[in-house]
């Protein structure tokens, strides 16, 4: 009996407590609903029990695009030119040993870089002469990343051109197609592909800024028909192709005008009409066989070119053309004899025409002579003693 009474008391107490809790629960639930959600942990990880609706959406949606039909006409041309030609462009690196005899120090290695392009399936690569001029080692890297040792098989300092040869499989060689630089117009769009600062096969675009510029070379020749462009040309671009909008090679990038050594928007390229007749000679002879008249130096004057010096036993000297004459004189003063020499300019011939074509500049005279072949005869009109005198000269072969 007592046991049953105790169980009844316990049930009554538990029921009272439960009732009180049920009365307080709605108020507490409401206060909990009004409290802000807990701050995210400092380590950025989400609490495992955070509702999915409160999670941020995934990253920005990627809209499909850049299909060829969505690109502008200009963009499509850029892409087409690059895809046509980029496999033809080579990266050229050079290494040269420079002896330093100061206090017996060891030789120092100097490295250089440039560009070039494939001209046939036989492994011939065209580049600038100044890129490989002093190189002891030359490496050519093709579009597929494979590098080959290269040999200089032809060179022409007068046009800053050099021809390299590599032993690469024909399937890795993609020759360029040449265009006609004589038909170019100022304002025409052009492209350059090269390796500026070692960044392989970089495409830049611009326009032809001017035509028929002239550039001096290191052997004192004047390169004619140079193309001026505003496409970005930097160190490493030398020897790379200049292209038209059809991907045809219309020139070879060769120099920039800059005070810093980096692109300033003024670049120069050798025209394809200059390259075309030289390439076969570089392949066949390793050099360009040019006609030479044997005049070492001239002085430009208002009425023509005054011959300063003719090459001893050269074509001009053998034909009787005269330059400055060195006069040696001596005089006795007591027991001593004084000797000296002076230049006699009075006997020098002045060239006024070649084969009837008036001559007013040294570069014009050079072009007229080099347009002929060794062994041919030209008529040089000179002023001698105040009178016009024609002299026939049989041209020799240049040593350049």
Notes on the structure:
The chain is an alpha+beta fold. It has 3 domains: 86-98 and 105-172, Trypsin-like serine proteases (Thrombin, subunit H); 181-285, Beta Barrel (Thrombin, subunit H); 291-397, Pdz3 Domain (Roll), CATH 2.30.42.10. Helix content is 20%, strand content 38%. The protein has 6 helices and 22 strands. It has helices at 2-34, 73-85, 129-132, 272-285, 315-319, 362-370, and strands at residues 89-98, 108-118, 124-127, 137-141, 147-156, 161-166, 189-194, 202-216, 222-229, 241-243, 249-256, 267-271, 291-292, 295-301, 304-310, 325-333, 336-344, 350-354, 357-358, 377-384, 387-394, 396-397. The strands form 5 sheets. Strands 1-2-3-6-5-4 form a 6-stranded antiparallel β-barrel. A hairpin with a 5-residue loop joins strand 4 (137-141) and strand 5.
Strand order of the largest sheet: 1-2-3-6-5-4
How large is the count of helical segments? 6
The CATH H-level superfamily of the largest domain is PDZ domain
Ends apart, CA distance between termini: 136 Å
What is the H/E string? HHEEEHEEEEEEEEEHEEEHEEEEHEEE
Report the helical percentage: 10-25%
CATH fold name of the largest domain: Pdz3 Domain
Q: How many beta strands in the DSSP annotation? A: 22
Largest sheet: 6 strands, antiparallel, barrel
What is the residue-mean pLDDT, rounded to a whole number? 83
Q: Outline the low-pLDDT stretches.
A: 27-35
Q: So, CATH architecture of the largest domain?
A: Roll
Going by helix content, strand content and strand pairing, the class is alpha+beta
**If you compute it from the alpha carbons, what radius of gyration comes out, rounded to the nearest whole angstrom?**
40 Å
Number of domains: 3
Instruction: Give the overall silhouette.
Output: elongated
Q: Which CATH class of the largest domain is shown?
A: Mainly Beta
Q: Please report which band the strand proportion falls in: under 5%, 5-15%, 15-25%, 25-35%, 35-45% or over 45%.
A: 35-45%
